[in-house]
Each structure stands twice: as structure tokens, then as C-alpha cells.
UniProtKB/TrEMBL annotation:
Pfam families in the cross-refs: Hydrolase
GO MF term list: phosphoglycolate phosphatase activity
Name of the protein in its database record: HAD family hydrolase
One record GO biological process: DNA repair
Keywords, ordered alphabetically: Hydrolase
Originating organism: Microbispora oryzae
PANTHER family for the chain: PHOSPHOGLYCOLATE PHOSPHATASE
GO cellular component: cytosol
Length: 225
């Protein structure tokens, strides 16, 4: 990030009235102790035990959310059951989740400056809440807009979760930033009009986040302070 871009980002952060944060990545690594590929495999086993034929393309998925998206094709009953199974695994994963350096400081500083702070996540509301309570951050979060609906199509990049947070916070999209580490986070910003800040926490992500529409990209959450 150039000095000029850094100055512009600092100005955006100062003026922001609402700070929205994705959960897995910007706040913590939820699957640090219970690896995502293991959770995805557990969901496939869960579906297979219910007679679902797992396509080869789904068999190789490492992302539990992608397996959940697949379940949306299998009818409301199966999708709801998969949602419950995934939620249970995510809550378990929060017990060994690893905090993202700089995330807590950003949240507390934003609150000190009078900004509204919300979590907007495709992970379950139960898991987000469990983690925030475990690490003592719940008191600094104004709202959690996370997965509760059995319809996978309502996850980001669908605007549902972001719009729910904006409505709750009475947020003005141009005065709101969303910090996320995935292309879907950047894409939902284009739809909702909030400022897209990409968090590139792995090699190769800078270009992918920029291509997905990021207004700014950082490699360290502390850069947002």
C-alpha cells in the first residue's frame, strides 16, 4: 500500500460512522484448531449418511460453507439439517479459534471514537456470539448480522446480511466500511454501496480482492487503526 493510499484509507476510517467486520479472517481464524477441510469432510459424511450422493466437485471442497451451499440444492429439510450440523461444528471450532492481531484494538478504538461496530458473517450467529463472549469482545459489538437462515443463497455476496446490519445501525452506506478477506465481501460492497476494505491475510489475496472490487487492501488489521 502506497503512502498516498495509506493516507486516503486513514481519512476513510476517520470519517466512517459504521465499521462492519467479517468474522473469519478479520476478527479470528475460526478454524485454527478444527481445520476447515475436516469440517467440510464431516458435513459430507453427514449428508452421505442421509442418502445424498456427493458429486465429485463437492467431494474435493475444503470450505464448509461451500458444502452448505451445495445442501441448498437438496431441499429445505436437508438444508436445515446441514445448517444445524455446520453451526454445531462452528461453535466447537470457536473454542480453539485464533484471534487476528490488531482486530480487538480496531474494535475498541472504533468504539472509543463513537463509531458503530457490527460483525457481518456467513458463519453462524451462534459461533460468532460464542467467540465474542469467550474473548470479551461482545461488549464492544453493537450488532451481529450472521448466518441463521437455512437458505445458503442469503449468505454474502447476497446483500441480505449487510443490509440487515445497516438497518439495525441506521447506517449510511457511503459512511460505512466493510472489512473482509474474501471476494464475496468485496462483491457485496458493490451491491450495497459501502466502502470495501480487503484484508489480504494470505499470499495472492491482494490481487484477488482488488479484482473483486476492493477500494483499499491491507495486509495487517493494525493498518486500519
Amino acid at each position: 500500500m502506497t503512502a498516498l493510499m495509506g493516507t486516503a484509507l486513514q481519512d476513510v476510517m476517520r470519517k466512517a460512522e459504521c465499521v462492519l467486520l467479517d468474522f473469519d479472517g478479520p476478527i479470528c481464524d475460526i478454524f485454527a484448531g478444527l481445520p476447515a477441510p475436516q469440517v467440510a469432510a464431516s458435513l459430507r459424511t453427514f449428508l452421505a449418511a442421509r442418502g445424498v450422493e456427493i458429486p465429485p466437485a463437492v467431494e474435493v471442497l475444503d470450505d464448509p460453507l461451500a458444502v452448505f451451499r451445495f445442501s441448498g440444492q437438496l431441499g429445505a429439510e436437508v438444508s436445515r439439517a446441514t445448517l444445524d450440523a455446520l453451526t454445531e461444528l462452528e461453535v466447537e471450532a470457536t473454542e480453539t479459534a485464533r484471534p487476528t492481531p490488531g482486530a480487538a484494538e480496531l474494535i475498541y478504538e472504533s468504539k472509543r471514537l463513537g463509531k458503530a461496530v457490527a460483525v457481518v458473517s456467513n458463519n453462524s450467529s451462534a459461533a460468532v456470539t460464542a467467540y465474542l463472549q469467550r474473548v470479551g469482545l461482545a461488549v464492544a459489538i453493537d450488532y451481529v448480522s450472521a448466518r441463521v437462515d437455512p437458505d445458503p443463497d442469503l449468505m454474502k455476496p447476497h446483500p441480505h446480511l449487510v443490509r440487515r446490519a445497516l438497518e439495525w445501525l441506521n447506517g449510511n452506506p457511503p459512511a460505512t466500511v466493510l472489512v473482509g478477506d474474501s471476494e464475496t465481501d468485496m462483491e457485496v460492497c458493490q451491491v450495497t454501496g459501502v466502502v470495501a476494505i480487503g484484508y489480504a491475510n494470505r499470499p495472492g489475496k491482494v490481487s484477488r480482492l482488488e479484482a473483486a472490487g476492493a477500494d483499499y487492501v491491507v495486509t495487517n488489521m493494525a493498518d486500519l487503526l
